Predict the 3D structure of the following.
Amino acid sequence: MPLTLLTGPANAGKARAILDAVRRDIARGAEPLLIVPTREDVERYRRELAASSVALGVTVGRFDELIEEVAARAGTGGEALGEFARERALEAIASRRSSETPAPGYARELRRLIDELRERRVSGARLRAAVAKAGLSRHALRAAEEVEQYEVLLSRIRRADAGARAAAALDALRRSPWLWGTRPVHLYGFDDLTRLQLDVVRTLATVVDGDVTVSLTFEPGRAAFSSRAATFYELAPLAREHRELAGRSQHYAPAARAALSHIERGLFEPDASLARECEGVRLLAAADEREELEVVAQEISCLLRSDVPPDEIAVALRSPEAVADLLEEVFEGSGIPFALERERRFADTATGSALIGLLRSVDGARGSVADVLAWLRTPGLLERPELADRLEARARREGLRSAADARELWEREHWPLDAVRRLEEAQAKPLKLLSRALSELERSFAAAWTGEARVLDAEEIDETRALKAGRGALEELRELVRLAPDLAPQSAAELADSLSALRFRGGAHAPPSGSPSNSAVLVTDPLTLRARRVRALFLCRMQAGTFPALERRVPLLGEDERRRLAQVAGVRLSDGRDALADERYLLYAAASRPQEALVLSWHTAAADGTPRSTSQFIDEICKLFDGAPATLEAPPSPYATVDAARVSARATDTAAERVSARATDTGAAREPSGEHPAASEPAGTARTSPRDLFPDGEETVWSASSLAVWMSCPVRWFVERVLRAEDLDPRGEPLARGLLAHAVLRDTLAALALETGSARVTRANLDCARGHLSEALAKRAEELPLSAERERTPALLRRLHADLERYFERAAAAAEDADAAGAQSVLEPRHLELEFGLDEDALPPLDLGGGLKLRGRIDRVDVGGGGEAVVYDYKGRTATPGAKWLERGELQVALYMRAVEELLGARAAGGFYQPLSGDLRARGVLDADSGVSLQVVSSDRREAGEVRELLEQAVAAAQEAAAQAMRGELEPRPQTCSPRGGCAYPAICRCAC
């Protein structure tokens, strides 16, 4: 048995021993295979062997390459069924066998179960019999039947998948062991082996009697290695030679050797001694996840400025994909070259979303507007990309939803969408559909690069990977359909659904422009890092529930069902692994990799402020040293490292400081550096130039609503009134109702005045008013739809009609009461939607003094015989009483009362917000000494002096708001920004109040 087993802890020199064995094999004329865990390891050891002039004659690869070599030598090569075709076949089988649509990801879980069964040499028929014998659930029985059907399918089409091909190759090699020859195999960097990998090693070492060397990170009796003991004890009896290598501390930098070596030797050991030296071990606590990554980025930047090569720095996270987007944003913003490979969805790329959108657009009823837009926005497809934006805006405003509506709208204004029609015609023949889809994929991808020859950036490189993945998937499907026509997608939409599940390996490899080297900081998980060393390691997101991660993916057959299968039917599928023991090993594997610095970081709160607990692994590290975690500060190391005290200070920055730092994110530039805010200016106010707020440089005329928005939050005013981003969404139903109600009331009262000579609703003309109301509502409803959801419109119209009729009935009753009381002054609706300062034909703007001019449109002004006037502003359901106007910043009616006095020469006797539904009582103020008789809430009736004082205060508040704007004081006010509290634009403002 020529198996050689090398074991020892991390940094025991196992890599050197393996490479020495490789060199000896080359020297004696053999052609060794060096098998390592990851692609990065492959490249690294190829470079290392090339540096020692032994690159020729050795093959460095991953375990997949070893299995390919076994298949080639055993004569069981040939084309295997691709992974995407497997999932498509499993989707089709699952859909046919159940009336229920399989859950998303079900085919992938079924594929994992099949791979597991292959490794354990359990057939589908045996599993089905075992499930029936164990009396498991119908879902378990269904899964077993689908596994069996899949195996029948492979037999029918005479194809094998990767797992079956590997099993067949090993069986053939066991029957004819001489086929392997004498090629030696060396496995390095593995701490654990799967059952298939163990089967390969066992076959080569015991049946073939080949030269196999396996290195394992393992020491008997140590707690950190408890989860890896099973693999060692399976291989140990097979070994001709077992070499146990002792741990060595020479790999660590001298300054950090004591602390880092102590962690490697003492982690999780109950009787570990306490170390006094902690040089090279640092803690980093941040306020939230973004800040944690920002501080890590700052520290990495310090290392890079200290001439530490990027590829000698690593950032390890238990689940890198969970924070990949945020990490990419932070690291790119800091100019850090980094490499982060992760699984990406084909549908999330421009290439993939374009093809999927195009395929779904073929079915006009099932496809959506978003599908058509996804295709039209393919880079390079439209010479004027803004045409797609206009289509989206129109579709959303008009409430269009289906792809058919979007296509009709587009073709009515532009040109026919021939690509959609070509796919429609191809649907009748599945092979033709797949070929057409492949052509459209390549055409869409090529559109972005036509006429260009340049180096692609990281995101564009991922687009090429997406093209490769999409092309491979379509070619696999085409081969599968050729062999099994019954598995063909029945429509373009079904093909799109299958492609939506497609994933590929991508990620950012982003040296900044002009970087002299292609090396990058590695961002990875602890297990991937196990076969390499780095000078500095940042172990991030050390949170409870994140690392250690005790929750595992639930397999298709649960643990209870697996135990039942083993007990009743003798089918063992569970390994009985200890999840926490696996997590302990991952921490050990990561903590043993750095040579100079180990930085452990965490954050104390989530983005929404929810407290986050620190990982128990922090305590495991800290208890190895003599002192509390705060004592883990060492003297300055050869390069800048994390200062826990400075991080704590960052974590407790005041909200005002953050607001000041982030307020410029709204887009407003600060004043030139020579100008400084006054010392008395409130903290958190960002001063900007008036030229940025009023770019036209013209005299500004304010509306009452614009002043109200400024008073609620200047940053909100800036976003809505200066940036003026076009709103893609249809009008909200409350806004649409308000617009329609205003127009209908104006038309109804105008028609009533024309017919009866008076716009005042009374008992005598109530029926006439109702008739005009119905006519106006029918006419205006076509121009001002109440909802983008057309099925809701009839009900909303009926409700509005009922509310306006109720309002007229109340107005008629109030008029009757006023006439019966013998009111001194009868009010007539004289002005409907009175405009001032809006155009040349309207009244001029109102000059309120202090450089403030006002424009607006008053819904209704009722005028009495003595020149008294009452202002009305229509509202939905709520109305603000006069006592609350200043407090809530609702100055509209007060300013309109001043406008009526200045521009019409009338005396403002009152002003009210008039609800049009719910409680119909108007709320505002009424001068009790004016002689005007109205039914009002008693608290709204004020003395003349109080009314005058309220108007003056409203004008003063408006003047101050305008003055703040002219001074450029952009202050975020999240408490009042939106009607229900909270920031209306958090992504822009980023206010930390």
